[in-house]
Amino acid sequence: MQEPITIQSSQNAHYKSLIRLFQKSRERKKTNSFVVEGSREIQRAITRDFEVVQLWIREGTPISQTIEGSCFELKKELFDKIAQRGGNETEIAVFKARHWPLDQLVLPAKAKLLVAEAPEKPGNIGALLRTAAGAGMDAVFIANPKTDLYNPQSIRNSLGGIFSLPIIMDSSENIIAYLKKHSFFIAAAALSEKSIPYTDCTYPPPMAIAVGTEANGLQAQWLDAADVCVQIPMHSPIDSLNVSVAAGILIYQALT
Question: For 29-75, how does the pLDDT look when each residue is reduced to its tens digit (9 = 90+)?
């Protein structure tokens, strides 16, 4: 790896580009790249063969990664200005984004999937990915995506889970067609008259657990496509759980 280039000015073109990657989804899409903060998450991305484009280190700190891309040593004040973790980390990396086309996905015969329809909050997406990766799910499908997968908050909340498994982003129609074609058992989380307690259901593989948003739940097409609708009993006055919490409950029940 080459010696780091020292950057002291906020007017530096590379620094301005880094800021745009942190702040703007269109910049991430335009460059097909994204940013990761923290040596642990950076190392997890490298371990999963994500391509490093740039490594940024805080002025005066050692380099802990070995990369082929460019390396910059950034003035402390400039690093701290863009860092999301308040000085706890000293490395930021830029990676090339990875995409998993639905028609090219290869899964094991007894695959276990999580489907999240239209999640809007990057923090929730990150938490869903963290839960799915931690539970050993084989892939995550994001149906009708509403936000950028590589939002820094999604990456941060996933704790590296975003690098650990395939993540397919496609329409609900295409995902349902894929699941039906490959004979997946679909369990849809829903509050409906035909829903049964999640503990009363068996989840034969290959299986997919589908969850919707807290506000609107799953669209009707998912309820029509599902082999079973399940619900998590609630006690008044609480009538819903955070989507990542609900997904975690269902996933671990299905795996028992």
Answer: 999 999 999 999 999 999 999 999 999 999 998 887 777 778 999 99
Specify the amino acid at residue 25: S
CA 166, 172, 176 angle in degrees (round to 5)? 80
CA dihedral 235, 191, 135, 41 (to 10 degrees): -90
The secondary structure of 48-70 as a DSSP string is TTPPEEEEEEETT-------SSE
The domain defined by 102-255 folds into Alpha/beta knot (3.40.1280)
E strand or H helix at 113: strand 112-117
What are the φ/ψ torsions at residue 161 (nearest 5 degrees)?
-60, -30
The identity of residue 63, as a single letter, is I
Pick the CATH number of 5-96 from 3.50.50.60, 3.10.350.10, 3.30.1330.30, 3.30.300.30: 3.30.1330.30
- The token duo for 85 is 């973790």
Q: How many whole angstroms separate alpha carbon 102 and alpha carbon 227? A: 22
Task: Give the whole-angstrom CA distance, residue 166 versus residue 164.
Answer: 7
